[in-house]
């Protein structure tokens, strides 16, 4: 099991049999950091789950290929087309010529503003669909929270690992591998903050109807829950996370940071902020 002492960003770590998270995190002052993870299932027909952010393209590709040979990859499951999930898709498709992209019609259309996805390499996989990847059958599921209409989670019944995508998003004081590394207050406050941040519409929902959706998601009975914007959940943290999720419709919307906040931050930082520099190329 990965520990705090052995955890490093962009170094894959095992969360279940033949299943690895590729961790990254984005510094997000003043609330700490946000995880930006993806996953690899190294089974009979290896699967990439999301393709990482373009800001760290070279490092992400190196990390992925340290787990699996790109020529062996047979499936790329794209949870949705946001840049932190699809940012390296074209590079991955180029380096994985034997892979089929599991996506949706709407995702392809949304990505067309930037690139043309090779439709001959796609397979549509919507809520409830399954795909046989040789030694296991994966299940697509629409999660309770999402920030993109094309979003689908992925459940692996063989290992009982659930990729929850943006559900259970949380800020963390420093990048960590497991939710259990947070204090009880950090865990609760992070779930309420992250959930309202990625899905501000949750405050508009009928609580009873939303709870039914959460119940359905929980019935997958995952042993391990991973996601793009959360450390891994296990044990009692899983049930607590679902309970906190059910409470979100009854919590007022998160008050966004305003220009007054930015002015205050800049006043504090005046004289200590270096000139803006372009981000180094990650090609």
From TrEMBL:
Pfam family name, one: Lactamase_B
Q: Ranges for the Metallo-beta-lactamase domain?
A: 35-196
Which SUPFAM superfamilies does the protein's record reference?
Answer: Metallo-hydrolase/oxidoreductase
Q: Would you say which domain of life the source belongs to?
A: Bacteria
Return the InterPro entries for the record.
Metallo-B-lactamas, RibonucZ/Hydroxyglut_hydro
The protein here is known as: MBL fold metallo-hydrolase
